[in-house]
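Is this the right way to post structure tokens for a design question? Let me know if I should format differently. Anyway, here goes:
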């Protein structure tokens, strides 16, 4: 009799949760339309639950997602909570209290109008509680609005033949919300400085290395990301500058990688439960040219200033994704063109870009590809992606230089509160490059694709342990190979003597060999192992730590990093 009552209670609870999800998906509960930044730790948990088979018709191949999409995913996982371990349920509860409006309890600096808002003030009793903290919150029939402070202190130490250390600090503000349930907005701005230590160590961070104020002017650094998104039933449109990733994978995303500079893009799309089509028109940053027209490569002096000319550089992309319950299959095509502001031929969201590029006298850099996510059984997921840059059919199976491609494939198996993954990625020689260096798959000289350079491969093993808190313990072991070009210093400038297709900013020259065997050139091997994790002291305030070991060319480097942050950014 007791078992029947328990079963009846469970069925009622499941029906109530299903109804809540149904109403949320059909507009009865106002969803948050703005995007959730890709730095947010909830994505690690969603990837874990995706592999468990708890998120049918769901995809993490194109990030960031809308906050409303993440909220729906968390509610779907709660429906299947019996399939979660106690640790996984604790992690789910952490993210529910933060991201689900019906479970948030807030404390603010200024008087706010959010439901479930308590009387605690942020700077007094509320500062050291597990309530959500903000400067100001508002929720009414017109707008849902959040204003939150961003603060961080980060220290790092690198040890090889000698030891260096550094300390940086950042402060900023994040504003985000939704108007009338259809228009999402997001603005994040931060400013920081090197407080002490070695600037060269700080430049190990790709974001600081790409920051002109810090890397070139040796000053402070600032960052901003923002977007506006309109969403109405099956149609959406957005414009903004965001960090993005695109492509199915674990550590490698074959079209837009996580280390790429934030992308300024206009995007329109259409979607249903099982299909999505997206058109993207994005602005990239070309390489500067001096008054004589000479291109200034990264690392050279005098790369900034009013006398430098930088031709307009644009990325266009079409992507169609099919999402059955067992995964996702997507196909995409892209073209990069420069030295003209807008080309009407590429503004059409329904066209075949490769044929259009040919009709425009073959000046531009086109590519195409696909990515696949397959969940053949619960607790197992397979991910793979393929990028085709160029291909000569008659030369397939040879080392012909123009057969340019990149691919990755991997698998993840999920245990209770833990997952293990293995992934292999490879980039053929000359991939991402173009005869016109301004058309290379780069922005401001940095690859927008995966972190692997041309003529490289990597095998990596990873693990994530969800121990009941917001941040999992993550481990990574990777072995990478790269076939480098043969260079020499001539008149104080590095010059390529033998080109093996190892640099995206150096295409094949007329006198270079037509044969480009994979890993030809100077073989560089690197091994790295790292462990990272974090702990939330009170809601919003957390510490993060990372230890990495790297071995290359007989040199062993230890890297230790620790940070204290308020909010993730």
């Amino acid at each position: 009799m007791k078992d029947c009552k328990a079963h009846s209670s469970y069925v009622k609870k499941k029906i109530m949760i299903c109804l809540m999800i149904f109403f949320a998906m059909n507009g009865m509960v106002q969803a948050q339309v703005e995007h959730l930044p890709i730095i947010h730790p909830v994505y690690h948990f969603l990837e874990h639950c995706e592999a468990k088979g708890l998120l049918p018709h769901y995809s993490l191949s194109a990030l960031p997602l809308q906050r409303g999409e993440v909220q729906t995913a968390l509610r779907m996982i709660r429906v299947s909570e019996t399939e979660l371990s106690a640790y996984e349920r604790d992690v789910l509860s952490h993210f529910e209290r933060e991201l689900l409006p019906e479970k948030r309890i807030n404390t603010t600096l200024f008087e706010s109008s959010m439901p479930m808002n308590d009387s605690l003030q942020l700077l007094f009793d509320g500062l050291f509680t597990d309530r959500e903290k903000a400067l100001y919150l508002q929720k009414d029939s017109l707008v849902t609005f959040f204003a939150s402070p961003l603060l961080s202190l980060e220290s790092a130490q690198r040890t090889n033949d000698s030891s260096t250390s550094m300390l940086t600090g950042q402060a900023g503000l994040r504003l985000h919300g939704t108007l009338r349930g259809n228009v999402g907005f997001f603005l994040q701005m931060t400013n920081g400085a090197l407080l002490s230590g070695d600037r060269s160590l700080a430049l190990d961070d790709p974001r600081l290395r790409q920051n002109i104020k810090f890397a070139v002017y040796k000053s402070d650094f600032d960052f901003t990301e923002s977007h506006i998104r309109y969403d109405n039933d099956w149609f959406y449109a957005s414009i903004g500058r965001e960090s993005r990733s695109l492509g199915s994978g674990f550590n490698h995303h074959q079209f837009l990688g996580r280390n790429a500079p934030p992308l300024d893009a206009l995007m329109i799309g259409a979607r249903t439960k099982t299909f999505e089509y997206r058109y993207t028109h994005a602005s990239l940053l070309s390489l500067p040219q001096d008054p004589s027209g000479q291109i200034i490569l990264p690392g050279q002096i005098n790369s900034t200033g009013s006398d430098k000319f930088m031709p307009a550089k644009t990325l266009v992309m079409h992507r169609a994704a099919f999402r059955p319950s067992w995964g996702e299959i997507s196909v995409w095509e892209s073209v990069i063109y420069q030295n003209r502001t807008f080309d009407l031929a590429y503004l059409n969201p329904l066209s075949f870009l490769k044929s259009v590029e040919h009709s425009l006298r073959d000046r531009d850099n086109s590519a195409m590809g696909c990515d696949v996510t397959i969940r053949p059984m619960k607790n197992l997921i397979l991910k793979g992606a393929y990028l085709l840059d160029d291909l000569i059919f008659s030369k397939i199976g040879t080392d012909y230089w123009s057969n340019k491609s990149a691919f990755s494939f991997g698998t993840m198996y999920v245990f209770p509160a833990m997952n293990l993954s293995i992934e292999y990625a490879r980039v053929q020689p000359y991939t991402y490059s173009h005869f016109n260096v301004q058309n290379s798959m780069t922005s401001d000289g940095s690859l927008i694709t995966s972190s692997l350079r041309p003529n490289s491969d990597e095998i990596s093993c990873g693990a994530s342990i969800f121990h009941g808190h917001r941040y999992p313990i993550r481990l990574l072991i990777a072995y990478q190979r790269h076939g480098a070009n043969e260079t020499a210093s001539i008149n104080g400038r590095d010059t390529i003597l033998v080109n093996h297709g190892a640099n995206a900013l150096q295409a094949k020259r007329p006198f270079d060999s037509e044969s480009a065997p994979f890993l030809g050139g100077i073989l560089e091997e690197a091994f790295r192992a790292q462990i990272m994790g974090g702990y939330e002291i009170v809601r919003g305030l957390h510490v993060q730590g990372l230890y990495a070991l790297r071995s290359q060319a007989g040199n062993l480097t230890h890297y230790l990093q620790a940070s204290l942050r308020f909010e993730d950014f």
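Format looks fine. Someone answered above. Worth noting: The longest strand covers residues 143-159. The CA atoms of residues 434 and 440 lie 5 Å apart.
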